[in-house]
Design a protein that fits this description.
The complex is a heterodimer.
Chain A lengths: L2 H8 L2 H37 L1 H35 L15 H11 L10 H18 L17 H9 L2 H11 L3 H32 L4 H7 L8 H4 L1 H14 L11 H4 L9 H26 L19 H4 L1 H25 L5 H27 L1 H26 L5 H30 L2
Helix pairs in contact in A: 3-4, 3-13, 3-17, 4-13, 5-6, 5-7, 5-13, 7-8, 8-11, 8-18, 11-13, 11-18, 13-17, 15-16, 16-17
Chain B lengths: L16 H9 L13 H6 L6 E6 L11 E7 L2 E8 L7 H6 L3 H8 L8 H15 L5 H29 L4 H21 L8 E2 L2 E2 L5 H11 L2 H12 L3 H7 L7 H6 L4 H5 L7 H4 L20 H25 L18 E9 L2 E9 L5 E7 L1 H6 L2 H4 L5 H11 L3 H5 L1
Antiparallel strand pairs in B: 1-2, 2-3, 4-5, 6-7, 7-8
Helix pairs in contact in B: 4-5, 6-7, 6-14, 6-17, 7-8, 7-9, 9-14, 14-17
Chain lengths: 446, 410
């Protein structure tokens, strides 16, 4: 063994990682800089020439990246909220209040063996989770998060949403059929029956909103509800909202309509034979679906990113760092130290048993919190899209909480009750809603 | 290595149903016995048009232990089914024949592991009849007290399981709080949380102690309130009630013909309760009702158990008020050699009539100890209750019968 080999073996794991990644990073950085220097102008010209495509690629990447932390957050929320409803503690070990547990779950499914059982149709088996995940992530493209913050402003946004969202049933059916397992087959067929049945009331209940707004673009629908909360479509379309909420629960396969993965009946439904990251895709897709359905309810019926009352926002704060000059530099250097000391002092004085370093840590954390809150307040007052995102995410997570709450509260319905409810009650009710809305628009005008 | 084919793949002949099934639908089918032992077996393992087998268990999430049910389904509708028992068979009856009378009792505990005292009780009663032992009255009251506590714990577990099998996540954790408090206080009394070995021939193993009494008093002040809180979680839930009503309905004659006892029989309107019909212990001195319901469906079986919990609370209250002082153990010789003879004793366990039949041949070991377990008896009616329902309902019907597989397989 050479000297290098012995030295390598003596390194600990972080050391090995460092000595592997550092040279790689160095080489990559140099290469990127070189490419930018040589071809930079060409690249900029190319991007400028194809701006819509660039915008699309950026939006898709952003949405794909966003879906994972969203799923993590909702999984953690579900674990913690249901635990509290069950009078348990829930996750409390990894991270503050166990909040990193879902991230650890994600890492776990990544590292597990990617297992393909005997007898499966391996191509379909591999593609199924991808189809399901893509179907949910692509639906995120048309959702308006804030003014100016959306993937694509399609004029047929809602139609695109239903079309792409309906693709997920293909993935579930593929998973159920290819798994070579009767529980999977039953789960896949159940999901096909359920999702296709509930698509109809889901789509019909929205037509009332479409008539009122006169457009299918989600952006325009949100803008139509601008003003106070009395302008929300929830008050003009209460029946539509109810139908949409119930059908959305069924579309997202959530309790009480989670028949496709009913663990006490058909083990895990279509996901029975899946393990590792393939199962992870199904799992993430489910929670991204919950987010999407909540976001859609908010956008269609609860005003999207608009504030529930006339917010006195136009406070324009001009940030001009150049104007502060040397003073800004001094402020940046001095303010953290002084702030930490000032915030640490009360703790150190009040608790004589507390060592100085602990007080300093508390002071530093408090300072960071204060700065973070201050920056958010500034952004909230200064930038419209931060306000929009704030209201949008607030309302959306309110509905995500409702979905989680229902999971902790309700038992599961039976398949015949499920289908009967869709065809006997929801469909006539949505048709009634459609006729009443259309009649009212004809008689009274919009 | 491995040149010979595994036994399960051995092909007997062209008309072997295993071969036919393998060619028709794949290798993971339930393997029927060949040649079929009965006509019923031959009929069951022949697939009709559009039917398929679904093998539920023994590792299915909600078969309450290791029951295997081979279900024949047409779409989602169960057309026929075949319960397969024996995955938990330990030969308890035979073990009891090779141990003396004291040792036999602790073999009986793990049969109904959620209500173990009711397995010991008929055994000690039968042995006491064989030996003409009179149990002190205080010991009888302690037996009734601990037994009724365990009945509440068992019914609490049933409530939670019922909800879990219908997809509700929360009730099982709420009712486990109730059960855990009872089990902890019985642990303080007997020294064990599940497998107590507390009833002895001629009495019980130790008087009421301070910790048990303080825990019991603490719990009794809020028992009714806690029970009502658990009940409110589900009782008026529209989804729950709609799924349970008219499900697995069994009428009075059928229930009697299938030898049902306990809550499953009382849910059909027959007020048969061993505590009243064949009184034992101090039950004649206690005042309680036998709740009955007439519907005979899963909802009736569920609600009836909730009513029973209230009666058990009444009994516990009376036991605490009427409990006399005195010894808790009769004077017995060290080596028990009853005269040759036979004795039968039955108690009302949370699942029904739990009975033991003991034969003595004059030695210090029982010649034969027959265990009559209500879970086993109730399982024979699943073939009657389930066909025609959906797959989702098989689990609900199973849960409403409340079988414990430890007692079924013995």
């Amino acid at each position: 063994m050479t000297v290098v080999g012995r030295a390598w073996n003596r390194l600990s794991l972080p050391g090995k990682l460092f000595f592997t990644l550092a040279p790689l990073l160095l080489v990559t950085t140099i290469a990127v800089i070189a490419i930018l220097v040589i071809f930079g102008q060409l690249i900029v010209d190319f991007l400028a020439a194809n701006l819509p495509i660039v915008r699309f690629v950026v939006a898709v990447t952003a949405v794909l990246l966003m879906s994972v932390p969203t799923a993590f957050l909702i999984i953690y929320m579900e674990m913690k909220v249901i635990a509290l409803m069950n009078l348990r503690l829930g996750p409390d070990r990894v991270g503050p209040y166990g909040s990193l547990l879902s991230v650890v779950h994600g890492l776990k499914v990544l590292m597990k063996e990617d297992f393909t059982p005997t007898g499966v149709d391996s191509i379909v088996f591999t593609l199924a989770p991808v189809v399901v995940y893509l179907a949910s992530v692509m639906s995120l493209l048309v959702i308006p998060f804030a003014p100016g913050l959306f993937g694509q402003d399609l004029n047929v946004g809602l139609l695109y949403f239903f079309a792409v969202g309906g693709l997920s049933v293909v993935g579930l059916l593929m998973a159920g059929w290819s798994s070579f397992n009767k529980y999977s087959l039953l789960g896949g067929l159940r999901s096909a029956a359920q999702i296709i049945s509930y698509e109809i009331p889901l789509t019909l209940s929205v037509v009332g909103v479409l008539i009122l707004a006169g457009t299918m673009s989600l952006n325009q629908i949100v803008l139509d509800q601008r003003g106070s909360f009395l302008d929300w479509f929830a008050f003009k379309q209460p029946l539509g909202l109810l139908i949409f909420f119930i059908a959305a629960t069924a579309e997202a396969n959530r309790t009480p309509f989670d028949l496709t993965e009913a663990d006490s009946e058909i083990v895990a439904g279509f996901a029975t034979e899946y393990s590792g990251m393939r199962f992870g895709f199904f799992f993430f897709a489910e929670y991204v679906n919950v987010f999407i359905m909540s976001a859609l309810i908010v956008s269609l019926f609860f005003g999207g990113w608009t504030a529930p009352f006339d917010w006195p926002w136009p406070v324009h704060i001009e940030l001009n760092p150049g104007g502060l000059g040397i003073g800004l530099l001094i402020l940046l250097a001095v303010a953290p130290v002084v702030g930490t000391l000032v915030l640490a002092a009360p703790f150190w004085v009040a608790r004589s048993s507390m060592p100085a370093w602990q007080a300093l840590i508390i002071g530093f954390v408090l300072l960071n919190l204060l700065i973070g809150l201050g920056l958010f307040a500034l952004a909230f007052l200064g930038w419209e899209w931060v306000v929009g995102l704030f209201w949008f995410l607030g309302k959306t997570y309110g509905f995500v909480f409702t979905f989680v709450w229902m999971r902790g509260t309700l038992p599961r319905v039976r398949i015949d009750q499920l289908m009967g409810f869709a065809w006997k009650w929801l469909l006539p009710a949505s048709l009634l809603n459609l006729f009443v809305t259309a009649g009212a628009v004809v008689v009274l005008g919009r | 290595m491995a040149t010979s084919a595994p036994i399960s793949r051995r092909r007997a002949s062209a008309d072997d149903p295993r071969v036919i099934l393998e060619e028709q639908v794949g290798v993971f089918e339930p393997v029927p016995p060949f040649p079929p032992r009965t006509e019923r077996e031959a009929e069951f393992y022949t697939l009709g048009d559009g039917e398929m087998f679904l093998n539920m268990g023994p590792q299915h999430p909600s078969t309450h232990g290791v029951l295997r049910v081979v279900v024949k389904i047409n779409g989602e509708v169960v057309t026929d089914l075949d319960p397969v028992l024996g995955y938990l068979h330990r030969g308890v009856e035979k073990l009891c024949e090779n141990s003396d009378y004291h040792q036999a009792i602790c073999y009986l505990d793990p049969l109904e592991y959620v209500s173990a005292l009711f397995c010991e009780w008929p055994a000690v009663m039968a042995f006491e009849k064989l030996m003409d032992v009179t149990v002190p009255r205080r010991a009888e009251y302690i037996r009734v007290l601990s037994g009724e506590l365990l009945r509440i714990a068992s019914h609490a577990l049933f409530m939670g399981w019922m909800a879990l099998d219908l997809g509700g996540l929360t009730p099982i954790l709420w009712s486990f709080i109730e059960r855990d408090e009872i089990v902890e206080m019985l642990g303080a009394l007997t020294g064990a949380r599940m497998l107590f070995n507390y009833y002895r021939i001629g009495g019980v193993n130790g008087d009421l102690n301070h910790e048990f009494m303080s825990r019991l008093g603490d719990w009794m002040t809020r028992a009714t309130e806690q029970h009502d809180a658990n009940v409110r979680l589900l009782n008026e839930n529209e989804i729950f009630v709609r799924r349970m009503r008219d499900l697995g309905r069994v009428d009075r004659e059928t229930a009697l013909r299938m030898c049902m006892t306990g809550p499953n029989l009382r849910a059909t309107g027959v007020p048969f309760d061993v505590r009243r019909s064949h009184p034992y212990s101090v039950y004649p001195e206690l005042d309680f009702d036998i709740p009955t319901r007439d519907e005979g469906d899963c909802l009736a079986r569920y609600l009836l158990r909730l009513d029973e919990v209230k009666q058990s609370l009444r009994i516990i209250d009376q036991c605490l008020n009427q409990m006399p002082d005195g010894p808790v153990m009769a004077k017995l010789p060290r080596l028990l050699r009853p005269r040759p003879g036979r004795a039968y004793a039955a108690v009302e366990s949370p699942r029904g009539q739990y009975a033991n039949y003991a034969i003595s041949d004059g030695t210090d070991q029982p010649f034969r100890l027959r265990i009559h377990d209500p879970s086993f008896i109730h399982l024979q009616s699943v073939g009657l209750l389930m066909p025609g329902h959906l797959i989702a309902d098989t689990m609900a019907v199973m849960a409403s019968l409340d079988p414990i597989m430890g007692g079924v397989d013995k």
